[in-house]
Design goal:
Length: about 400
């Protein structure tokens, strides 16, 4: 038996999955009476400000799309259902979908809330050829969540992503690995990843419209005309994209923010909003078992000037009370003059994840301090449970004002 292998090219098998009209589909799934109707998720059209997050396919027929001003959407289709986003619910379903995907590949890279890449090279042998694997993936997602996804498959990430977008909704489009160049050739250059409006205009000025035409240009000439970035696009156009599917790197921070309906000048209203944000954020952190040492307050004033102020603690925390206290202190020491506030937010960074928590450094806390901390954590747990069961109205108002939090650096 020879130990040298023949030089065979091994193709990767990459799938890209994207949920269809995600936020709108969730609303239609949770409220059967919304099915078949134009549904728009986003800002309140009566407020006169804000944008569309997404629109159901029924609403898209009226020309409504993501990022469109909500007032324009309303003009196009006043009888659509206009709903505010329920991020918690979307996160929950996103998580369920990702769990299904993890059953199809050991390498899943989530990109944003509703899409992911899977590297299925090798798993096909276990789970069936790419078309079979993709079909059972679609079925399982639908069975477990009631949502439809569109799947694209190819030998690289860029082509898989282009493919998943080709037959939306509920699509399945596969490009045979190794045939990316031919697959991409008829598509317009606008589809090239990273080609912005200016780049596309420049390419059009050469008389080039399709990816196939672009792929035929000389890379040296392109470098001279348009710089290095164009060569990267030229590689994509030729079906070359070596980027690996990578599991998500650890997040650097976790945050939550609120935009006011009207710019605010009442400190009391702002502080109430910060209290609510601290509550939601700390709950999210406890659920993920993440703690953070640095608390950052973000304030955006009218005219979009944004300030951030941070404070770093010696110990990582995720309890509601400490986050509330610290943000309130930072807010009170922040001078905004007479300018009104448009948005406030809280972020925690310097994160510590559950698998990297060192043994509790008891010496940093006095006996009394430790008991206080345990009581606080117990209280948060009880409230988290109550909120899961009875909703947001459950509060801890009576416990807000007690003092004391871990020492600062
Ligand atoms: P997308 O996948 O871009 O859009 P979609 O899932 O609504 O529709 P499609 O069938 O074309 O994939 O984005 C996923 C979700 O992210 C979307 O449901 C709402 C949210 N989103 C915004 O809030 N603002 C935006 O500008 C975009 C593009 C998306
Ligand atoms: Mg989507």
């Amino acid at each position: 038996m020879s130990l040298t292998s023949s030089p065979v090219t091994t193709f990767r098998s990459i799938l890209h999955v994207d949920l269809d009209a995600f936020f709108a589909s969730v609303e239609q799934k949770d409220h059967p009476e919304y099915r078949g109707r134009p549904v728009v998720i986003g800002a309140d059209p009566q407020s006169g400000r804000g944008v569309v997050s997404t629109a159901s396919y029924e609403a898209r027929k009226f020309g409504i799309h993501s990022a469109m001003p909500i007032t324009t959407a309303y003009r196009l289709c006043p009888h659509a259902l206009y709903l505010p986003p329920r991020m918690g619910r979307y996160q929950e379903l996103s998580h369920q979908v990702m769990e299904v995907l993890e059953g199809y590949s050991p390498l899943v890279e989530q990109v944003g809330i509703d899409e992911a890449f899977l590297d299925c090279t090798g798993t096909e042998a276990l789970l069936g050829s790419a078309p079979r694997l993709a079909r059972s993936l679609k079925e399982e997602v639908f069975h477990k969540t009631g949502l439809t996804i569109s799947v694209g498959g190819a030998g690289n990430k860029f082509t898989a992503k282009v493919a998943s977008d080709m037959n939306k909704p509920d699509g399945l489009t596969l490009c045979e690995p190794g045939k990316e160049r031919e697959f991409l050739a008829p598509l317009p250059v606008e589809k090239l990843w990273g080609a912005g409006e200016k780049t596309v205009r420049k390419i059009h000025s050469f008389g080039v419209r399709t990816i196939g035409e672009f792929a035929l240009l000389s890379p040296e000439w392109l470098r001279m005309e348009m710089g290095e970035g164009a060569v990267k696009l030229w590689m994509l156009a030729n079906g070359v994209d070596d980027r690996p599917v990578e599991e998500e790197g650890r997040r650097k921070s976790i945050s939550e923010e609120t935009t006011f309906l009207r710019d605010q000048s009442e400190d009391e209203v702002v502080e109430q909003a910060l209290f609510r944000i601290a509550d939601t954020l700390s709950r999210k952190m406890r659920k993920l078992q993440i703690k953070g040492r640095t608390v950052t307050l973000k304030v955006r004033l009218e005219g979009f000037v944004t300030f951030t102020r941070s404070r770093t603690l010696r110990e990582p925390i995720h309890d509601t009370r400490t986050i509330r206290h610290i943000t309130r202190e930072i807010y009170r020491s922040f001078s905004r003059g007479s300018r009104r506030i448009r948005l406030v937010g809280i972020a925690l960074s310097n994160l510590r994840f559950p698998d990297e928590s060192p043994p509790e450094q008891l010496t940093l806390f006095s006996e009394g301090g430790r008991r206080e901390k345990e009581r606080e954590e117990g209280l948060d747990r009880v409230l988290d449970n109550l909120k899961e069961r009875f909703g947001e109205r459950v509060t801890r108002a009576t416990f807000l004002e007690s003092s004391g939090h871990p020492p600062e650096e």
